[in-house]
Amino acid sequence: MSDRGVKICGLNTLETVQAAVDAGADMLGFVFYSGSPRSISPELATEFVKRLPTGVKAVGLFVDPDDAWLEQVLGQVPLDMIQLHGNESPDRVGEIKAYYPLPVIKAVKIGSEDDLADILKYRHRADIILLDAKPPKNVTTMLPGGNGISFDWHLLAELAIPGPWMLSGGLNPENVTEAIEITNAPVVDVSSGVETAPGQKSIELIQNFLKQVARC
């Protein structure tokens, strides 16, 4: 396998969780956001996470969570990391990081070169920056993430990104090699790109995605 990290996000069945583990994924993402077709209950996520082998990290994805929801999920599910994928401010990210003893991933949405400045706004509040595609302004029906759209990876080609970071947004088995070649992303994160329908992961696509990353 490649030394490059891979996160498979939005898993919601035991079969696909096991497939991701067997294929060599480093991180598995579980979505605790009711507006997503990939949403999972804390009870089911707990069952899955307890089956993970040592070395595979369980990431909980939240979208603008309030304290009560964070407390409920984190008090039940033995997560390794928190992912904030909404419009959380830098101060809110800092609050969550200070309260919970877990690494925090913060999604920063990129649509143009102007958005790159947001990386520095969150750099000292989050442990890992996840660069995702910003939904078009004229589209109001898109989810906070997992929309299958990408941004211009060439924006990152000459950019020295400080600290740990991940690439997301529209990745799939067909384009992940190109994305890595352009950005040299240390970790790639996929959700809709390994699905046959929203929320329905494909074991074959998961396996193919990991194989393509391993070849880079």
Distance between the termini: 10 Å
Q: Please report the total strand number as a whole number.
A: 10
Shape: globular
Mean pLDDT: 94
Characterize the structure shown.
30% of the residues lie in helices and 21% in strands. It has 216 residues and is α/β, with parallel strands linked by helices. It has a single domain, classed as Aldolase class I (TIM Barrel, Alpha-Beta Barrel), CATH 3.20.20. The strands form two sheets. It has an eight-stranded parallel beta sheet. The relative contact order is 0.18. The model has no long low-confidence stretch (mean pLDDT 94).
What would the keywords be for this entry?
216 residues; alpha/beta; TIM Barrel; eight-stranded parallel beta sheet; two-stranded antiparallel sheet; 7 helices
Summary of the model, kept short:
This protein is an alpha/beta fold. It has seven helices and ten strands. The protein has one domain: Aldolase class I (TIM Barrel, Alpha-Beta Barrel), CATH 3.20.20.70.
